[in-house]
Amino acid sequence: MFSFLKLPREEIEKILRMLRNPRAPMAPRVVVAFLFLYIIWPVDLVPEAIVPIFGWADDVGLFGLTLWWLHKEVERLSQ
């Protein structure tokens, strides 16, 4: 189910190459930018200060969802 979280180094390198490629679609870069902004932004859906353990769950979940989507985008673009 969560096999995308165990991506081999080659897959991670493919994602990074896609993000650096100026001919690649803009959507993956925008999604990654929003992900990092959300993670460093002090306002969360579930604040860490109020619910310490579950406060990180939305960050981790969003990171995992973004990683899954990027993996699927690399597969789609490499066809």
What does this structure look like?
With 79 residues, this protein is mainly α. Helix content is 66%, strand content 0%. It has helices at 9-20, 26-40, 52-55, 57-77. The chain is elongated and about 45 Å long.
Keywords:
79 residues; mainly alpha; 4 helices
Helical percentage: 55-70%
Order of helices and strands: HHHH
Low-confidence stretches: none
Strand content range: under 5%
The major β-sheet equals:
none
Number of strand segments: 0
- Total helices: the number is 4
Q: Which word captures the global form?
A: elongated
Rounded to the nearest angstrom, the distance between the terminal CA atoms is: 23 Å
Rg, rounded, reads 14 Å
Please state the average pLDDT score: 81
Helical/strand content category: mainly alpha
Summarize the structure.
The protein is built from 4 helices and no strands. It has 79 residues and is mainly α.
Topology:
Elements: H1 9-20, H2 26-40, H3 52-55, H4 57-77
Helix pairs in contact: 2-4
